[in-house]
Amino acid sequence: MIVRIFICLLSLLLFSNAHAQPQKKSVPKNWFLLDPETDSVQGVSAEKTYNTLLKGQPSKTILVAVIDSGIDIDHEDLKNIIWTNEKEIAGNGVDDDKNGYIDDIHGWNFIGGKNGNVNADTYELTREYMRLDKKFAALDTNKLSKKLAAEFAGYKKIKDKYTKLKVKNEQQYTLYTNMYRNVRQSVDTIKARLKTDKLTPDLVKNFESTDVRLLFAKGFILNMYKNAGDDADIEEFIGQVKEGVDYYEVIVKYGYNRDFDSRKIVGDNYSNLYERGYGNSDVKGPDPTHGTHVAGIIGADRKNDIGIKGIADNVKIMPIRAVPNGDERDKDIANAIIYAVDNGAKIINMSFGKSFSPEKEAVDKAVRYAEMKGVLLIHAAGNDGDNIDVDKNFPTKKYLNGKEAKNWIEVGASSWGANDEFVGSFSNYGKKMVSFFAPGVEVYSTVPNNQYKNESGTSMASPSAAGVAALLWSYFPDLTMPQVKDILLKSTRKFDNLKVQKPGSKDMVLFSDLSSTGGMVNAYEAVKMARETKRKIGE
To answer: pLDDT confidence of 74, banded at 50, 70, 90?
Structure first.
């Protein structure tokens, strides 16, 4: 019975559809570039736009900043589109352009220092719990002012949430660790008994033993073949379990670890929110997978006939490293936005988010600065299946004073087909807070070391929108930021009465109720609308 339950549990973990829909074999890898009419998939219509409306038209290079985990700037499909700071002399240890950052040749890293880089970091929930715990430990909680009493009530909720999540993730880490160890050992043993390096369904079916461990291995492998097909690779699925181990290990060792302090590496005075100049020039960092994938969606080289094609064909990517494996910090994000604006970015992609923002005033100030300078901010809505009209997700277009940034677009994740699974099952949504949806399920893009991979998340949807924004601005460079934003919103593709499964629920809702525009980004209609705007301006 124990073996049987264990196999069923493992099957659920490996073949669950809790986070994203599996890619259909008939869907091309570049589906996010394609068009529903010409290609029968719900991409952004970039290829159709280039082949018709923009064929032979001149364009201007648009600089897009990617605030992320780092970017592999030597990737075969990205190296030709990476921004270079022409005012800086590489490797001379001098701030040649006097911008406060030494040797920032290709961007800047706000989560690094003289002796290395931050990889993992704590969650903002952990940091907020620690801050409030220290604060109320020094106070008599029986004699609090009305204001402090309300804050104390919030602290108790945060403490409860932290404790529950810490325990839950520790349990998951233990589960995956034991699962991996047992399955790895069992599979290796049965391979040894069969004297083979590769298992097949027939070999496993015909294997007989009285050893409980080997019977477990046999049951697991047969169940895997049942779910994935006779040509499935057992090692691939064991690798997925190992990924689970690695995932929860970071959460337990760093995310909810109150004793871990990443700022020792950075060496800044974190209490000084408006400090500048800290960090280093290493824009790759220890794990640039996420940022590299994001950058490829926006503008992977469309002229080199290798790998993939990004959405924008005349773009430069400015790498800014500020997002660790954990929650980003408000100070770093504020500085990253300011750095991008000061160095000429027209668009900033932000594929990150968290549920708390204790130094939000610093981020608000940076967003206002970007708005004043005419820079468009595009942000991923998040992957919790939440209604962010209700559940907070930071950074956000709403300032502390209740007003809204006029240069902000919030993006949810869509899939390739106009059916009830059109919305990514993980995607956050919101009739007020989310602007529109963009391709974010099984998007094939660049990853480090000249590799390519499918990834899902609103982290992919945001650069899909940023790529369309860059495409539009590149061919219509005289448009203002408010005009570009307005066109992107008004040109979205609509779906009359399309009902989809609401993320995080089995309920069916109208797709039009999940965002303010009720649509998805549409390069073809955006270019048509930009042409009309340009014509009216010229009259």
So the answer is: very high
